[in-house]
Structures are given as C-alpha cells and as structure tokens.
Amino acid sequence: MEYRIGDIITGKVTGIQPYGVFVLLDEDHQGLIHISECQHGFVKALGDLFKVGQSLAVVILDIDEYSGKISLSLRALQPAPAMTTYRHRKHYWTNRKYHTGFAPIASRLDGWVSEYLRELEKDAQ
Predict the structure, then answer these.
(1) What is the pTM of this model?
(2) Residue 22, strand partner residues
C-alpha cells in the first residue's frame, strides 16, 4: 500500500519503548508514534496509555524517502486543549516604597573589587 502524509489509517500496536510506540500499518509497513505525538501535555509512561495488540487510528506526519521510516501522530487527531488565562499581578523583587536606585551596589563596590583583587593575588602565588 502506498501511504501519503496526512493519511489517517488504523494500525495495531506492536511495541512500546520509552521514546515511542511502534504501530504495524500493514504486512510490510510499520510506523512510530514519538512520545511527543501521543497526546497533548506530559506523558509519564507509554505503558499506561497503550497495550500491545491495541488498535489505533493515527495520522501520517512524515515519510522518510531514503529510509522508508514513517512518523505517526495521535495528538494531531485530538482537539487542542482549552487555553486557560490567568490574571497576572505584577511582582516586584524590590520594595517600591524605597527609592535607593544603585546606591546599595555603589556602596559595596569597593569591597567587592578589593576582595576580587585579593583572590587574584592568592591564585597567582
């Protein structure tokens, strides 16, 4: 059978690895569903989602013309998850009541420079 990118076909799970699921498309062709194409969101363990012998409807994402490898996806057949919006509050890492600017850094700069120069002298010896 000749397959094309975008075809939706039914296959049977033949193997489960940590990186993806192998699906038998027909007697001569097998494809791989990469873990990132199994479902939307995080996938902890593929063994929890699939079983060997399970029948799946998948879409063909890519066919490598040189090696003949077929990339499959289940995620492309699922509706996209609803996006949730959050109200964001501004978070300031400093206290807005104090307007010190760079004064705290400037007051400590001389000490930092002399400490650095002392470390350089120790390393040179």
Answers:
(1) 0.65
(2) 15, 32
At 98 the pLDDT is 75
Output the 3-class SS for the chain. CCCCCCCEEEEEEEEEECCEEEEECCCCCEEEEEHHHCCCCCCCCHHHHCCCCCEEEEEEEEECCCCCCEEEECHHHCCCCCCCCCCCCCCCCCCCCCCCCCHHHHHHHHHHHHHHHHHHHHHHC
Residues in Cβ contact with 18 at an 8 Å cutoff, skipping those fewer than 6 apart:
35, 46
| Range name among 19-23, 39-43, 82-86 with the lowest pLDDT average | 82-86
How confident is the prediction for the chain on average, in pLDDT? 89
pLDDT band at residue 96 under the 50/70/90 scheme = confident
User: Using an 8 Å Cβ cutoff, are 40 and 80 in contact?
Assistant: yes
Produce one character per residue of 34-49: b if its CB has 16 or more CB atoms within 10 Å, e if not: ebebbeeeeeeebeeb
Q: Give me the count of residues in the chain.
A: 125
- For residue 85, report the phi and psi dihedrals to the nearest 5 degrees: -110, 145
